[in-house]
Every structure is written in structure tokens, then in C-alpha cells.
Design brief:
The chain is built from seven helices and seven strands.
């Protein structure tokens, strides 16, 4: 049965009756998850984002998302699903975090200028009796940016809370990104199409949340 169109004879709940708990302070993730049209509340999760140096760059975001998910110790309702996420920018196999200063932001953008990099967003989901995670990758090509363009963006938009020192939805994304391969919203911080697909897969016809991974 199509989980998005439940049989009218079934009096149970469906995935559409799930309530989400977003464990993120990111206003962009809050905006994106609100567009799914499901009830959602935000919860505070504070963890130290430290990783081993032996971890592959492509695994960092998913590992951090799982760490946040596992750190939550609050109460959850029967039909609530906790969603945590983390986004990293990878250039040449090296993870680029959030810039700590203006100069660091400028240096990051100079490095990304005229080249392709990868954006990984890891997402972890947790409900009654299940937890699992996934990662989504998008390739992003920047055109060659001038120093004046980089300075303008950093000084006006102050992207110090963004991995890789930029937001694709902002001015620099409009004038500087030539091409992406993958999910646009993944670069914003949450692959909503994949999240939607996983939520549908998780919930069976009577509304209970189950792990249906193969």
C-alpha cells in the first residue's frame, strides 16, 4: 500500500501523522523541515563535535549526526521522530568546517573558487525502537571569484555559521555557483527529498514507527 495514500478502510495513522523533533539550531534546517508540512518542534542537543583523524571525509557528517542523535536524552512521544543533521564541505579530501574569523572565511572561499567541492549532509533518525542514519552528497562547482567579490560577501553576509564559509541560497550562490550535481537542499543543510522518502519507508499502515531497512 502507498504509505502516502493510506487505504480509507484503515482507521490507523500514517506517516503524515508523525511529529518531528529537530535537534538543530540552524535556521535553514528549521525552514526546510517546516516545508514538509509535518508538526515539528525543536530540541536542544549540545555535543562536542570531535572525530578521529582516521575517519574518511565522506563519513564525517553522518558520524556527527549520529552522535547528536545518541546524545538526546529527553522524552519522545510514540509517534515522534527525532531528526539530527550535520553538514560538511570537503575540498580535495579535506573537511572544511565553519570559519572562526573573517580571514579564515576569505581563505576558504579563495580555496573553493574555480574548483569543484563536495557537500555532505548526514542525517540521523530516531524513534520508538529504531535509529538509523544516512548521508547525501552534492558536487558543487564555483566559478572563479575575485577578491572583491569574496570580500563583499564575507563583509555583508558574515558566513561564520556556515560550513565552507558560504550559503548557496545567498548572494554568492547566485553569482558564483556554475553547476551542482545532486540535491540543492542538501547544500543548504538538509536533503529534504531523501528525508521525506525515509519517513515514508519507516512508518507502516497503522502509524507505528518501525525500522524497515533491508
Amino acid at each position: 500500500m502507498d504509505l502516502g495514500k493510506p487505504d480509507s478502510r484503515d482507521a490507523g495513522l500514517t506517516w503524515m501523522d508523525c511529529s518531528l523533533m529537530l535537534g538543530s539550531k540552524s535556521p535553514r534546517r528549521r525552514e526546510l523541515i517546516a516545508r514538509l508540512g509535518l508538526p515539528c518542534r525543536t530540541v536542544e542537543i549540545d555535543v562536542e563535535e570531535t572525530l578521529t583523524h582516521t575517519m574518511a571525509a565522506s563519513e564525517v557528517a553522518e558520524s556527527l549526526a549520529r552522535k547528536k542523535c545518541e546524545a538526546f536524552s529527553g522524552r519522545m512521544g510514540d509517534n515522534e521522530v527525532l531528526v539530527t543533521a550535520d553538514t560538511v564541505v570537503v575540498h580535495g579530501g579535506t573537511v572544511m568546517g565553519k570559519p572562526h574569523s573573517r580571514q579564515e572565511a576569505v581563505e576558504m572561499l579563495r580555496l573553493l573558487s574555480g574548483s569543484v567541492h563536495q557537500v555532505y549532509t548526514g542525517v540521523a533518525l530516531r524513534g520508538k525502537g529504531f535509529s538509523f542514519s544516512f548521508s547525501e552528497k552534492t558536487d558543487v562547482l564555483f566559478s572563479r571569484l575575485s577578491d572583491a567579490e569574496i570580500d563583499y560577501y564575507v563583509d555583508v553576509y558574515r558566513p561564520f555559521d556556515k560550513a565552507g564559509a558560504y550559503g548557496i541560497q545567498e548572494w554568492i550562490g547566485m553569482i558564483g555557483i556554475e553547476r551542482i550535481e545532486g540535491c540543492y537542499y542538501n547544500v543548504m543543510g538538509l536533503p529534504v527529498a531523501r528525508l521525506y522518502k525515509e519517513l515514508k519507508r519507516l512508518v507502516n499502515g497503522d502509524g507505528s514507527v518501525v525500522d524497515q531497512r533491508p
